[in-house]
Write a structure and sequence with these properties.
This protein is an alpha+beta fold. The protein contains twelve helices and 19 strands. The longest helix has 55 residues.
Length: 464
C-alpha cells in the first residue's frame, strides 16, 4: 500500500512540474526584454508594423550594416553577371589598415556577384566601395572630389542619400558605401528597419544576405581562390547562437558605433526583422539581444486579420458647381493584418480614414486608413508593444450616380408587358379615331341625302 501511495505522489509531483513548466513557457510577457543594445527595432517585414522598439529615432553610427543599402541599390540598378574593372579610386580612396577587406586590386576584373558576396558575407570595405562605384558608372554619376577630379565613389554617395530620402529615412545621412566611421555618417534603428525592408524586396538580395559560404574564383590579378564564411552565427546551425527560423543577418562594428546587427527570422507565416544599434559589449551580446527580442515577439504577439469588407468606408459624393455630380467608393486594396500583443484583442483596435466628407470635381482623390488602439488598450499595452499601428492607402474609385445595370427576368417581362400595352393603347386610340371619323363622314353624308330629298319634295309641291 505504501508503495502505491509513493507512486501516486511521485506521479502527482511530476505532473505538477510538467504543468508548471508548460504554464511558464506559455505565460504572456507584458514587458519587452531588457537589452544591452541601446537602440533597437523589431518590424514585421510585410506590413512594416513596428512591434517593439527602444530609442529607435536616436541617431547612431551604423558601421558595416551600411552595406545593406549599398548591395540593395547595386542589385536594383545592375546585374550580378556584369563584369567590373576596379579603378585606382576604388581601392585607394580610403585606408585599409584595421578594416576588413578582400585584397581587391587596381585593374582587377571581377563580377558584380563576387562583389555582392564579398560585401555582405565578408563585409569587405574594398568590395563595398567597388560595388558603389559600379553603380555610379552604370548611372553615369560623378561628383568633383577635393582635388577637383570627377569621382564615381562620391557620385555613389549622392545616390545613397537620394535613396534614403526616397525611402523616407529622415534620421539618416551616409558619406560612404561601407560604413567606416565618419561623424556625418549616421542612421537610426527605425531607418535601418525601413532600409532592410526595402532591401528584402529587391530581387536576389535575400540570396546574398543569407549566404553561409562562398568561394571567389581566381581573377586576372589574383591566381588563388578566395573563400569566405558568414560572420553572423544567428543563421548558421553549427553556431552556438544559432536561432531557429533565422534566414539572414549582417553585422557591423567600429569603436565609435559599437556592435550593430540587422537580421531576419521567420516563424509560421510571420517574418520579422530586428535592428540593433550601439551594443557596447562583445561576446555575442548582439546575438543574445536579438534572440531574446525574437522570442518575445514570436511568443507574445498574434496575427489579427481585418477583411476588405470590414475596412470598407462610406461612399463620398463628388460636387460640381455646387451640385452632386458623382460619388466615390472608398475601400482597402486587400485584407490587412496587424501583429497584436496577446494582452489585447481585435476589439481593442480602432481605425479611421482621412477621406473628406465630399470631393470637388477634378481634384486629386486620395486617402489613408489609420489604425490605433483604444484608450483602455493603450494602458494595457504600455511597455508591452509599440502602440502606433500605422496606416494603409485606400482605393478610391469614382462611379456615376446612376449606373447602367443588366435588367433581370422580372424587369424584362415587365418591360415587354408595358411595350405591348403601349402598342394596344395606340391601336385603340387609332381605332376610336377611325370610328369617329367614319361616323362624322356618315352623318354628313346622311344630312346631304336628307337635304336632297327635302329639295325634291319642295319641287314636287311647287309643280302642283
Amino acid at each position: 500500500m505504501k508503495q502505491i501511495i509513493s507512486l501516486i505522489l511521485a506521479f502527482s509531483l511530476c505532473f505538477t512540474m510538467v504543468l508548471a513548466a508548460f504554464a511558464e513557457d506559455t505565460a504572456i510577457q507584458d514587458t519587452a526584454p531588457a537589452t544591452v543594445s541601446n537602440a533597437y527595432v523589431v518590424m514585421d517585414t510585410q506590413s512594416g508594423q513596428i512591434l517593439v522598439q527602444k530609442n529607435m529615432d536616436e541617431q547612431k553610427f551604423p558601421a558595416s550594416i551600411t552595406k545593406i543599402l549599398t548591395a540593395a541599390i547595386a542589385l536594383e540598378v545592375g546585374d550580378p553577371n556584369d563584369q567590373y574593372e576596379i579603378t585606382a579610386e576604388d581601392v585607394f580612396s580610403y585606408k585599409f589598415p584595421g578594416t576588413t577587406y578582400v585584397a581587391l586590386t587596381h585593374d582587377e576584373v571581377v563580377t558584380v556577384e563576387q562583389l555582392l558576396y564579398a560585401t555582405l558575407m565578408a563585409s569587405a570595405n574594398d568590395a563595398a566601395n567597388c560595388l558603389g562605384s559600379y553603380v555610379a558608372h552604370k548611372l553615369g554619376r560623378t561628383v568633383p572630389n577635393a582635388d577637383g577630379e570627377e569621382s564615381y565613389v562620391q557620385g555613389f554617395v549622392e545616390i545613397l542619400n537620394e535613396k534614403l530620402e526616397e525611402l523616407g529615412c529622415t534620421g539618416s545621412h551616409f558619406t560612404n558605401a561601407h560604413g567606416l566611421h565618419d561623424e556625418d555618417h549616421y542612421t537610426t534603428a527605425r531607418d535601418m528597419a525601413i532600409i532592410t525592408k526595402y532591401a528584402l524586396s529587391v530581387e536576389g538580395f535575400r540570396e546574398y544576405f543569407g549566404a553561409l559560404s562562398y568561394t571567389m574564383a581566381p581573377t586576372n590579378m589574383q591566381p588563388e581562390s578566395r573563400s569566405w564564411g558568414t560572420q553572423a552565427g544567428l543563421f548558421a546551425e553549427s553556431n552556438k547562437y544559432y536561432y531557429e527560423g533565422a534566414t539572414g543577418a549582417k553585422l557591423g562594428y567600429t569603436e565609435e558605433a559599437g556592435h550593430t546587427m540587422v537580421s531576419v527570422a521567420k516563424r509560421n507565416d510571420v517574418e520579422l526583422l530586428c535592428v540593433l544599434l550601439d551594443c557596447s559589449q562583445g561576446n555575442w551580446t548582439d546575438h543574445r539581444d536579438t534572440a531574446s527580442l525574437y522570442d518575445y515577439c514570436f511568443n507574445n504577439f498574434e496575427t489579427v486579420l481585418f477583411t476588405q469588407e470590414e475596412l470598407r468606408q462610406k461612399s463620398v459624393p463628388v460636387y460640381r458647381e455646387g451640385v452632386i455630380y458623382d460619388k466615390v467608393t472608398v475601400n482597402a486594396y486587400s485584407d490587412y493584418y496587424i501583429q497584436l500583443h496577446k494582452l489585447l484583442s481585435k476589439a481593442d483596435v480602432k481605425f479611421a480614414s482621412n477621406v473628406p466628407g465630399r470631393f470637388l470635381y477634378g481634384e486629386s482623390m486620395s486617402g489613408t486608413l489609420s489604425f490605433a488602439l483604444t484608450k483602455s488598450a493603450l494602458k494595457k499595452a504600455e511597455g508591452a508593444m509599440y502602440t502606433s499601428l500605422g496606416s494603409i492607402p485606400l482605393e478610391i474609385k469614382e462611379v456615376p450616380l446612376t449606373e447602367e445595370k443588366e435588367p433581370g427576368l422580372s424587369e424584362k417581362i415587365l418591360s415587354l408587358f408595358l411595350t405591348v400595352l403601349k402598342v394596344l393603347v395606340v391601336l385603340f386610340v387609332v381605332l376610336v379615331l377611325l370610328i369617329l371619323i367614319l361616323r362624322a363622314y356618315n352623318i354628313r353624308r346622311y344630312r346631304k341625302i336628307r337635304e336632297k330629298r327635302r329639295q325634291r319634295q319642295r319641287e314636287r309641291q311647287n309643280r302642283v
